[in-house]
Design goal:
Blueprint lengths: L7 H18 L11 H25 L5 H51 L5 H59 L2
């Protein structure tokens, strides 16, 4: 068995250097530039709704009669309801993000105002101001969370109402079809 003349510490140092150079040679993707979240959401919304709209257009252009026509019309209405629900959900998400941005901007402005007023004042007074600001900020954060949760819940309820209405219409259509068959 061949033995190395290196000491265990030298071996560890050599292994670390080899690992460091291996990490440098591996190509890693460049860091992604900070994107506008609203643009990302718009792209996602378009990517989701485009196939649905295309499918709706194809169903609309079908030339069928009788039961096939009723099935195609029902499918078209289902897709239109999904598209409308998706749009309502997206609009609600946009409103939540915009409100979050406003809340953050207001909070930063308030903190900047407090910090600017501190340097020339008495240390005890400065601590009291920071304490009051912290308490107010905590209360405001709780109020903001409630407001955002209410906005998101309303948005989702609106979107669900569109789908619920379409389900109700589907049930009524089936009842009518079954009523015709029973005669």
């Amino acid at each position: 068995m061949a033995t190395s003349s290196r000491t265990p510490a030298a071996k560890r140092t050599a292994a670390k250097k080899a690992g460091a150079t291996a990490g440098k040679t591996a190509s890693s993707p460049p860091p992604r530039a900070a994107a506008n979240p609203m643009e990302d959401m718009q792209k996602m919304q378009k990517a989701f709704s485009k196939p649905l709209q295309e499918m709706g257009e194809r169903l609309q252009s079908l030339n069928v009669s009788g039961a096939a026509s009723a099935i195609a019309a029902s499918g078209r209405k289902d897709l239109e309801a999904l598209i409308k629900a998706n749009q309502k959900s997206y609009q609600g998400l946009q409103a939540v993000v915009q409100r979050q941005t406003e809340m953050l901007r207001d909070s930063i402005t308030a903190w900047q105002g407090t910090v600017k007023s501190l340097p020339g004042s008495d240390p005890k007074e400065g601590i009291a101001k920071l304490d009051a600001m912290g308490r107010a900020a905590f209360k405001q954060a709780l109020d903001d969370i409630r407001e955002l949760a209410d906005m998101a819940a309303k948005s989702q309820a609106d979107a669900f109402e569109v789908v619920r209405g379409r389900i109700h219409d589907n049930v009524e259509e089936v009842r009518q079809l079954l009523g015709k068959k029973g005669r």
